[in-house]
């Protein structure tokens, strides 16, 4: 999401709930995903609301998990003991399934050893994923190289990248691998459901 869009969403929320302005730089980037419509902008307000709760909740449910920034914040910052993340998209869910099943280190290695070029990307994404971990890797690859991170079928590769850069403009292997490895600290407290959020 662009900074302008984030500011717009914050303003919209602020108009409705009269919350104080917050500093978005205070939000650590913990998710391997980049998401149009991500909720990073909401994190400072989430913290404030959680800090005002008299009793610490045991569990948080994030019904449209995506990049899962609210769940990750809730666990890393100890607002809850466990989270249920619900995600309807099998590709997106595969990333969380891989992490939750203890395959974060494998995923991190896979990210680090992939040499990105247009050819290697197209070749990798044309292969059927053989298991959940390969599917997770392909999802991260797509999310970081497709136009504004959109994973929907029919969306395309970054043509000129953002700010005139190439498909590699959002592929930071070391940073992504570190984020995935960091998730090991809290992965045992995530319950991932491939399901429909509202129904759940
Ligand atoms: C905009 S993203 C969420 C962003 C995320 N909370 C974050 O901050 O990174 C929306 C996600 O919700 C998922 N989703 C959409 N409709 C859903 C539904 N009915 N049930 C569960 N997940 C859904 C999408 O597949 C997508 O991954």
Tell me what the structure shows.
By secondary structure, the chain is mainly alpha-helical. It has one domain (3-194). It is built from 8 helices and 3 strands. Strands 1-2-3 form a 3-stranded parallel sheet, covered by helices on one side. Strand 1, helix 3 and strand 2 (82-87) form a beta-alpha-beta unit. Helix 5 (104-113) packs across helix 7 and helix 5 runs antiparallel to helix 8. The longest helix is centred in the N-terminal third of the chain and has 15 residues, at 3-17. The chain is globular, with a radius of gyration of 17 Å. It starts with a helix and ends in a 6-residue tail after the last strand. The structure holds S-adenosylmethionine. S-adenosylmethionine binds at residues 31, 33, 35, 37-39, 63-64, 66-69, 86-89, 92, 196-198.
State the gist of this model.
With 200 residues, the chain is mainly alpha-helical.
Features:
200 residues, mainly alpha, 3-stranded parallel beta sheet, 8 helices, binds S-adenosylmethionine
Radius of gyration: 17 Å
Question: What portion of residues belong to β-strands?
Answer: 5-15%
pLDDT averaged residue by residue = 87
Secondary-structure content class: mainly alpha
Give the termini separation. 27 Å
The largest sheet has its strands arranged as 1-2-3
Largest β-sheet summary: 3 strands, parallel
Q: Are any ligands bound, and if so which?
A: S-adenosylmethionine
Number of strands: 3
Name the assembly state.
single chain
Low-pLDDT runs of 5+ residues are none
Approximate helicity band = 40-55%
What count of structural domains? Answer: 1
SSE run: HHEHEHHHHHE
Global geometry: globular
Helical stretch tally: 8
């Amino acid at each position: 999401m662009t900074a302008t869009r984030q500011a717009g969403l914050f303003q919209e929320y602020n108009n409705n709930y009269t919350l104080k302005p917050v500093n978005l730089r205070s939000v650590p980037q913990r998710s391997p995903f980049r998401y149009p419509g991500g909720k990073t902008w909401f994190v400072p307000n989430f913290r404030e609301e959680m800090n005002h709760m008299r009793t610490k909740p045991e569990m948080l449910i994030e019904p449209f998990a995506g990049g899962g920034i609210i769940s990750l914040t809730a666990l890393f910052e100890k607002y809850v003991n466990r989270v249920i993340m619900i995600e309807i998209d099998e590709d997106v869910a595969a990333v969380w399934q891989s992490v939750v099943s203890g395959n974060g280190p494998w995923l991190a290695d896979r990210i680090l050893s992939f040499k990105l070029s247009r050819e290697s990307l197209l070749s990798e994404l044309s292969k059927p994923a053989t298991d959940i971990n390969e599917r997770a890797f392909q999802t991260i690859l797509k999310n970081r190289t497709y136009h504004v991170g959109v994973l929907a079928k029919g969306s395309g590769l970054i043509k000129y990248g953002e700010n005139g850069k190439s498909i590699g403009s959002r592929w930071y292997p070391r940073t992504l691998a570190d984020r995935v490895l960091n998730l090991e600290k809290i992965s045992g407290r995530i319950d991932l459901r491939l399901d429909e959020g509202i129904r759940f």
